[in-house]
Amino acid sequence: MLKSDRIYLRLMEERDIPFKVRWINDSDVNATLNFDYPISEIGTRNWLNKAAANSSRKDFIVCLRENDRPIGYGGLLDIDIKNSKAESYMGIGETDCWGKGYAREIRTIILEYAFMQLGLNKVYSYVWEENKKMIKVNERAGFKVDGKLREDVFSHGEYRSRLIMSILKSEYMKKNNI
């Protein structure tokens, strides 16, 4: 289990499927995501079984420490040991938890895991160009914009541009005085 003062991340289990389905199908939540909507519990169960067996990814559920309430998700995709990098993703599914600093904590925990436990050299993230809140979370964590992928993905009925942002282990170490 990975933790901070207010939250912890644990690997996603079957019991978490209803939460993930509800979050992804929520129009307020999925406005910043790139999923095929709607998703079902059966499809999510099939995805989870495949994902859990895939060593190139780690999928976590984010819970509040005070009451074990699941509030979101996050993890690492395409963990590439040879090139020492991975893509990071995250989301807060419970809208009453938005704007309370949990995204910053999730980002911090995932980076510590990637750099200190997995020994990766680079963590990157794709962010919708218009998702200013996520861009700010990444920048506060030390991410820099590597570039813009213009009209990169067809989502929500339109072609959307994404930024690719990353942080190197050396930048993480310097920022955190390690």
Automatic annotation (TrEMBL):
Domain N-acetyltransferase: 7-164
Entries under InterPro entries matching the protein: Acyl_CoA_acyltransferase, GNAT_dom
SUPFAM superfamilies xrefs: Acyl-CoA N-acyltransferases (Nat)
GO molecular function, one term: acyltransferase activity, transferring groups other than amino-acyl groups
Source superkingdom: Bacteria
PROSITE patterns according to UniProt: GNAT
Protein's recorded name: GNAT family N-acetyltransferase
Lineage, uppermost ranks: Bacteria, Bacillati, Bacillota, Tissierellia, Tissierellales
